[in-house]
Amino acid sequence: MARETELSRRSLLKIGGACGAAAVFTPLLGAAEAVAEPAAGKGGRLIPAGKVGTITFTQRDIPGRLAIAAGSTTTAKLGGPDFLADPNANPTDFGPEVPLPGGWAELFAFLANAGFTQIEFAGYGQNALNPGGTAGYPGDGNAAGRQAYLDYAGRLRALLDANGLEAIGNHGFIPNTWNGPGSAGGAMSAADLLRFQTELEFGNILGTPYLGTGSDPTSANNRNIEPWTLAGEKWTALNDLSVNQFGIQMYPHNHDPAYNFLQDGPMVEVTQNRQTGAPIAPTVVRGESGKRLMQHYLDVTPADLVHIEMDIYWAHVAQHIHRWRYDWNGNRVEDIFDPLATVAQQTQRYPLYHAKDGDSTGQAPGVGQGYTMVPFGDPRSDIDYANFFADQGARGYHNPNYEQDNAPGSNATPEGRGQSLRAAYQSAFNMNRLRG
Q1: How much is the pLDDT for 275?
Q2: Nearest to 53 by CA among 351, 392, 407
Q3: More confident residue, 14 or 162
Q4: Helices 103-114 and 6-19 sit at what angle, rounded to 10 degrees?
Q5: Could you tell me the residue range of the domain that residue 353 belongs to?
Q6: CB 27 within 8 A of CB 81
Q7: What average pLDDT does the chain have?
Q8: How far is CA 263 from CA 108, 200, 293, 330, in A?
């Protein structure tokens, strides 16, 4: 693997030898070395070796588990030889039952040797008995508690470094007591400001260039233009603070509603169902120019300061769902969202992605979500990631993080307990081999 170090290799063997868990890791040591090998076909890597990332929400069952090193006897099936050779061809080769990794140290070791090089956190906590312990932000913001939290950041950074991993972001705290310079709510509370600054210091210790949230810049349930303009002001101000003090950029995320149509026109009368076009009783709604919510957010924020993380899966769900709008004359208009074109027009505003893959449900446009989640590059995939990454522009700039909300399986079976790690291995395998 491009960034695997002798330290991480020794750490894995030490964990395996000390806890009788060598079977968990040693097959992956050999497999990881193959990750960097060029795949057949023309074109170069579409995801640089140093930017193969995952968000730990995908493996959220692992940090809270007791680690093997802390005495866990929980077992799982993490993949047999045929799965490790090609998980796409042999997805049901679950392998033997082996000790199940738990906590950050063992999760990082697994992810690094599967072929990941970047980690986006979805919170920092783990089982307190695991190597490195844990600490959360103190509820009352007391100085001793904040220092303990920052000390924990140092231990977490050491675990990343030991496995040659880089922190690229976190879905964490965003102040909610202040909605921007133009809001009626006044200044950010002193408690929120203190926590925000502490979280930035935590991120600085981790060495991450980005911190953000798993949410939209503001509630997408309100599609009026005014709150989205205000959200742009808030996030500009947050970035002024975070970039100037710590060199860290703040980012929001998206789900499909963020690519619904902005309500930015006059009140108009409509007589057709938005989705089906069937006649409806005359209804008054606010007209839509065709601009999407997230695009307006980008339009009202400085391009060199405010960036976002696109979830490519949810953008494709938006393409499936949010296809019709009412124009400023009340006419029903089909207007299909194009995720790739949206990124390519201003590609450097999207430094982060969630590279979440999807299998088409075959539902008619506008019905259901249109996709179900699968591991990245799974043969069932109907999202064209090769074309997306080849044509997005600024090749090598973006940081795609594999995510799969449904990756953690049931605790009832060894296959279920190993599912999130097998899906992570399959996804890293495919991200490293994506060519174009």
Answers
A1: 93
A2: 351
A3: 162
A4: 120
A5: 6-253+292-302+337-433
A6: yes
A7: 91
A8: 44, 34, 9, 12
Question: By the 8 A CB rule, do 270 and 280 touch?
Answer: yes
Split into its structural domains, the chain has a count of 1
Collapsing DSSP states into helix, strand and coil, what is residue 148?
helix
- Residue-level pLDDT at 345: 97
C-alpha 287/C-alpha 294 separation (Å) is 17
**Residue 387: is its pLDDT beyond 80?**
yes
CATH of the domain at 216: 3.20.20
Cβ atoms of 46 and 389 within 8 Å: the answer is yes
Of the candidates 105, 388, 352, which has an alpha carbon nearest to the alpha carbon of residue 251? Answer: 352
In a domain, 162, yes or no: yes
DSSP 216: -
Residue 372 has what pLDDT?
98
In Å, how far are 253, 269, 372 from 352, measured between CA atoms? 9, 40, 22
- Give Cβ neighbours of residue 347 (< 8 Å, ≥ 6 apart): 392, 393, 394, 397, 398
Chain centroid to CA 49: how far?
Answer: 18
- Cα Rg for the chain, rounded, in angstroms? 23
The distance from CA 427 to its chain's CA centroid, rounded to whole angstroms, is 13
The reply to whether 307 falls in a domain is no
Distances (CA, A) of 48 to 38, 142, 307: 12, 42, 21
In a domain, 258, yes or no: no
Q: Kindly state whether residue 123 falls inside one of the protein's structural domains.
A: yes
Res 327 pLDDT > 50: yes
